[in-house]
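Let us practice reading a record.
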Amino acid sequence: SRARSLAADAAARAAQAQVAASGSPNTSGRFSVVSPIAGVVGAVSTTVGGFVASGGAVVEISDPAQVELVFNAPPALASEVTSGARLQVTGPSGSFEAVVVGVAANAREQSGAAVIRARSTSSALPPAGSPVTGTVVTNSQEGGLTVPADAVQTVEGRSVVFVADDNGFRVTPVLAGRRAGESIEILNGLSGDERIAGMNAFLLKAELAKGEAEHGH
């Protein structure tokens, strides 16, 4: 019918307009995809010869100058961190320094946990979405509390140590400071009188994860 013919013609014109807006292929039949922002390619969602659905993402690009690092911390520990504090951050590709730009309560957590936001002071950033851990960098203080570096483990994004009690060991969140050699400064969370797990703390972490997995089933 004429109505269907007009509809098909309109669809064809719309497709042609979309192609024209996207650019024309070169002599090899390839299209050039231009990003609206300058940045670093973090992920590629297609392969050579593949198809991309209308509105689908071809690549993910992030601007390192705008990427923020997000950490979750218990309220008691987060209160020790203020904007401008320096962090030593460890990610999949190594360590780098960052500075805290904000500390706020996490509205999604009823426990009162806080969100610490920071920005890297270097260009050594992992891809967006990568898991990272942060350690607060403080000025040197004589007589400060330090523990073996192996004693500090990361559980659910928090720095913790395993403190011995009558029932074995309990997970205790801590605010870790500067690392020097095989020791880490503890800014908050321990009094100094506790007995903690040292080089075998990673085994307790593994047992904890195993127990949670079995409980989940």
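A brief commentary: The radius of gyration is 25 Å.
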